[in-house]
Amino acid sequence: MTGDLTYRFGTSHGRIDLTSDVAMLASSAELRSAEWFAELGTHGLRSAVRRASMRKMMVCFSTWKALDDALTGFSLDVDQGKPGTLVAEHGWSQRAYVLASEPEVGTSGGRVCVTLTVALLDGAWRRWAEPVELTVWDGSGAPQQWLDYPHPYPHGYASGRRAEGIDVAGASPCPARLTFWGPCVDPYVTIGGNAYAMVGLTLASGERCVLDGTTYAATRVGVDGTETDVTALAQRGAGVGSGRYAFERVRPGWRPVSWSGSFGITVELCEERGEPTWAR
Question: Of 154, 190, 193, 232, which is most buried, counting CB atoms within 10 Å of its CB?
């Protein structure tokens, strides 16, 4: 691994910069390795998927305390079942656990070094594009003013741009994460000919629903931040390619967007790769 690498803890807001004076990567080539798990047929592939995998990296810490603090954080993530996130150069990230540590003999430049065994959980590295905001529209040919809800939403609802289409980057179809903002009933949006819909869902003002194509789950978030699993309400049609599948990936290129315009939507797309890019 070249360039920056950071581990963000899942159980706290803390993180470790693994290319800093406190913790420095000594060996991390395995993090760049990629592999398809394939089943062979008679003259071809029956299936090929990317799965969670184990990788090793050596990290040298400046002090014993810095090492202890890191190992405590890694262990807490596993114990609480809240994976951390490895963030590599150029914005690529993946959920991860650190499952083992092996001390190296001696020190390196006064540092104490350990080899960490990392479970990469997603089977792929992801890079999220800038969110696109689809704003409330009255149908007159011009969008209304940006809405500004008095709630601490993770993305500024007043930012972004009105879009009649989305330019999807990357070489392969991208997972989508859609946030429907209340008030609305049976929220939906059509992107590239596929309808992403929540059937039977009503959101009050200040509520939102996150439909996440990376986890195949839908979550309703109340005004007070209470989360409720509403995955069962996600429309599935006849499955992938049916035109009514809520977790359909979005193909690269310019994709038209349509919806009623009576509620706001945040659209987030991410590229996926087996390994982070080298050049960008």
Answer: 190
Angstrom distance (rounded) from CA 215 to CA 174: 13
Residues 6+ apart with CB under 8 A from 144: 135, 136, 137, 138
H or E segment at 134? Answer: strand 132-134
Give the SS3 label for residue 201: coil
Query: What confidence tens digit (pLDDT) does each residue in 222-255 have?
Result: 999 999 999 999 999 999 999 999 999 999 999 9
Residue with tokens 């996150």: 210
3-state secondary structure of 65: helix
- Residues 27 and 57: their CA atoms lie apart, in Å, by 5
- With beta carbons less than 8 A apart as the criterion, state whether 97 and 52 touch: no
- Residue 180: name the closest of 189, 169, 167 by CA: 189
How do beta strands 165-168 and 111-120 pair? unpaired
Counting as low any pLDDT under 50, the low residues of the chain are 142-161
Residue 137 near residue 162, CB atoms below 8 Å:
yes
